[in-house]
Amino acid sequence: MARLSRANFIDLRPLRTSPAFARLWAGSTLSGLGGQLTIVAVMLQMYAITHDTFAVSMIAVAGLVPMVIAGLYGGMLADAFDRRKVALLAASITFASTLLLAVLTWGGWETQWWLYGLSIVNSAANSIVQAARFAIVPRLIPIEQLPAASALSGISSGLTIMAGPALAGVLVAVSGYGWTYTIDVILMTSLFLGLWTLPPVRPEGTIVRPGLESLKDGWRFLRRASNIRVQYLVDITAMTFGQPLTLFPAIGAVLLGGGAVTTGVLTAAFAVGAFLSSLFSGPIGRVRRHGLGIERAVIVYGAAIAAFGIVLGAAALGWFAPAHVGEHTPNLVLIGVGGLMLAVAGGADNISAIYRSTMMQAAVPDTIRGRLQGVFIVVVTGGPRIGALYAGALATLTALWLPPLLGGFIIIGLVSVLVRLHPRFRAYDALHPEP
Fold first, then answer.
1. CA neighbor of 365 nearest in space, from 154, 196, 220, 150
2. What Pfam families does the entry give (predicted)?
3. Domains 1-203 and 210-435 share a fold
4. What is the model's pTM?
5. Residue 399: helix, strand or coil by DSSP?
6. Which of 435, 376, 426 has its CA nearest to residue 235?
7. Which of 7, 157, 210, 244 places its Cα 20 to 30 Å from the Cα of 127?
8. Which CATH architecture has domain 210-435?
9. CA pseudo-torsion sign 98, 102, 107, 112
């Protein structure tokens, strides 16, 4: 029984097998926590300066195009030069921009435009770090441990998303913006330790210098790699029709009550689900049919999002509601059920991400792995923003409960059809990875 229980928990072998991976993972986790501190603090500081929610939302919008360009170019750099040096250089830019943000804040010189500019630099440099780091991991551990490494990444992201925003709010309230940015600067040094102690990681195979020809080479590979292409399409479908995050403030104010507290609970539910699914990810590493795993995980995700829409519909009908639902009179029953549905969605999304990440790292040749990660950055940054547009527009025209309800069923239908049209994806075997 004890052996069975241990088998259900996350596989920690990558941390024991490769000290280099363990240092990189620990450094990435701590720096990711610091990054969350800065992201939230910048939003709070922008609102304190402008008192304008549109100005706050423009932080993400302004950084989108530079992030996409940097992700693509960073992938080309990672496929042409020593990936350790590429990641170190990009991390140095992130470090310098965060340090400048701290200095400006301590000196009282911060402005709205400094916040925009440094946020753009941060997001662009981080995209390059991500592309290079993704291409490094398969060179540090055996291929059979890649699912475990992806699950450890889920633990890392779950922890940073759960703890980071809350800790940022407390730090800003207690010590101010300057100390919050300074703590991020301190935590970021752990990423340098993880990268600096790595051996050189030069790309293997034919090297294509960064530029248009490198981009074309990556595109030609993607056209031939149907398994990778299908997983991108599956992810875009899920993120476009299953991202109700932009509706949470209105849901907390109008449907479920509780105001900002409800918004925080619903947002955290995603991260809690991701964390728990990684914590109990032991069986995932023993699954060979990764394409089938992605399909089933995304269908569960769609079903959970649709169920969340049903919960909102029940709230609109007044089920389990106190006499006057509002900021101080939350519908605790439906908040709990809705949070549970979102936790299931977060867990399913994380399981899908583990399989997708493992497939990309195992099936994509080393010489092109950075460029494919650059394309993936475009997918994961663009999909949720399209999803925000879908959810916001449809909710404005109809009702708050319709976007998740309809979107969940669209995800189930489209993904089922897409995978059926590509039987090779469903038959993908982790022991014989093919792109």
1. 220
2. MFS_3 (PF05977)
3. yes
4. 0.81
5. coil
6. 376
7. 244
8. Up-down Bundle (1.20)
9. positive
Q: How far apart are CA 255 and CA 326, in angstroms?
A: 8
Q: What are the structural domain ranges in the chain?
A: 1-203, 210-435
Q: Which residues fall within 8 angstroms of residue 113, CB to CB, at 6 or more apart?
A: none
What's at 341, amino acid-wise? Answer: M
Q: Which of 102-106, 139-143, 352-356, 428-432 has the lowest mean pLDDT?
A: 428-432
Mean pLDDT of the chain: 86
pLDDT tens, residue by residue, 142-151: 888 888 888 8
Q: How many helices (H) and strands (E) does the chain have?
A: 17, 0
Q: Are 229 and 222 in contact (CB under 8 A)?
A: yes
Identify the CA nearest to 149 among candidates 350, 340, 308, 15: 15
Which pair of tokens denotes residue 21? 């991976």
Residues near 307 by beta carbon (within 8 Å), at least 6 away in sequence: 341, 344, 408
| Amino acid code (one letter) for 79 | D
Q: What own/partner pairs with CB < 8 Å and gap ≥ 24 does 200-203 have?
A: 200/82, 200/84, 200/85, 201/82, 201/83, 201/84, 201/135, 201/136, 201/139, 202/81, 202/82, 202/83, 203/78, 203/79, 203/80, 203/81, 203/83, 203/135, 203/366, 203/367, 203/369, 203/370
299, 415 contact by CB (below 8 A): yes
Give the Å distances, CA to CA, from 127 to 27, 36, 97: 16, 15, 14
Name every residue whose Cβ is closer than 8 Å to that of residue 303 and which is 6 or more positions away in sequence: 408, 412
CATH 1.20.1250.20 correct for 1-203: yes
